[in-house]
Amino acid sequence: MNVCKQIDCIPKRDYIYTLNHLFISMLMRILFVGATCFELYQFFENLKESPNNKGPVFHYSWHNLDIDLIITGLGTTFTTYFLTKTLNLYSYDLVINAGIAGSFRDEISIGTVVNVKSEQFSDLGIEDADRIKTVFDAGFVDPDDFPFHSGRLINPNRFENLELPAVHGVTSNISHGTLQSIARLKDDFDPDIESMEGAAVFYVCLLEKVPFLELRAISNYVDFRDTENWDIPTATDNLTNEIFRFLGKFAVVKQVS
Questions:
Q1: Mean pLDDT of the residues in the chain
Q2: What is the pLDDT of residues 173-220, one digit of tens each?
Q3: In the chain, pLDDT over 70 holds for what percent of residues?
Q4: C-alpha span between 89 and 69 (Å, rounded)
Q5: By CB neighbour count within 10 A (0-12 exposed, 13-18 middle, 19+ buried), where does 117 fall?
Q6: What does the domain layout of the chain look like in residue ranges?
Q7: I need a labelling partner for 254 at 20 to 30 A (CA). Which of 22, 74, 193, 210 fits?
Q8: Which carries the bigger pLDDT value, residue 21 or residue 83?
Q9: Confidence of residue 251 (pLDDT cuts 50, 70, 90)
Q10: How confident is the model at residue 58 (pLDDT cuts 50, 70, 90)?
């Protein structure tokens, strides 16, 4: 059952209430989208695995929740393909894109888990002198053509039980590691974090009208590349804890009722 199909005609002021209360009133089916196995390994090790779980869509359960997983690989192309294909095979009440990310802000420190509320494609456009003209700047796409708002992809879904910093992300098929390219990103997009898949998930889910969420744990600062300064274990530990905290609200309510 796809909740979104039931709530297309609900007034906007009731949208948030309806999402939260429909989700806890039935058996939820959730799809997790990850780029790599190691980012979500700790989480799925604690779930009940379905028999003959061979993929490419892997099936699990946790309390009253049916949880599926796809590992897409890095970047927007693989993510768009595998997510779209999966949504054509199965119906979900919620899609969660979860993984690690880099931070542009000192105040968003390593280990912090964030809720990405908006995304932009940072490498979709034309290189012109010392900047990138986006497809919107170049006039190829209207910046307000659905699902875009002023060139951004914005998540309209809000969850009362999600208490994480809300951030703006940029998505690129290149993980930036030179001072020149990082400075250009900051000037052109003013982002909080960078990932390689987030905007693709936003784009597909908005077009398919599936509720979604992007959770990212900061593993590094976006700076001159030096992986010795990264802390992926802390990021994945914190990400796992926050995922269970978020899902636990739904599972506990279902069990009590």
A1: 85
A2: 888 867 888 888 888 899 999 999 999 999 999 999 999 999 999 999
A3: 87
A4: 13
A5: buried
A6: 3-256
A7: 210
A8: 83
A9: low
A10: very high
Cα separation, 150 vs 142, whole angstroms: 8
List pLDDT tens digits, range 123-137.
Answer: 888 888 777 788 998
Residue at token pair 């888990």: 113
DSSP the chain: --HHHHHTTS-GGGHHHHHHHHHTTS-EEEEEEESSHHHHHHHHHTSEEPTT--SSSEEEEETTEEEEEEE--SSHHHHHHHHHHHHHH---SEEEEEEEEEES-TTS-TT-EEEEEEEEESSSEEEETTEEEETTTTTSS-TTSTTEETTEEE-----TT--S-EEEEEE-SS---SHHHHHHHHHHH--SEEESSHHHHHHHHHHHT--EEEEEEEEEESSS--GGG--HHHHHHHHHHHHHHHHHHHHHHHHH-
Q: CA 200, 139, 123 angle in degrees (round to 5)?
A: 35
Judge: domain 3-256, CATH 3.40.50.1580: yes
Q: Which residue has the tokens 């779209």?
A: 84
Answer whether 93's CB lies under 8 Å from 3's CB.
Answer: yes
Burial class (CB in 10 A: 0-12, 13-18, 19+), 241: middle
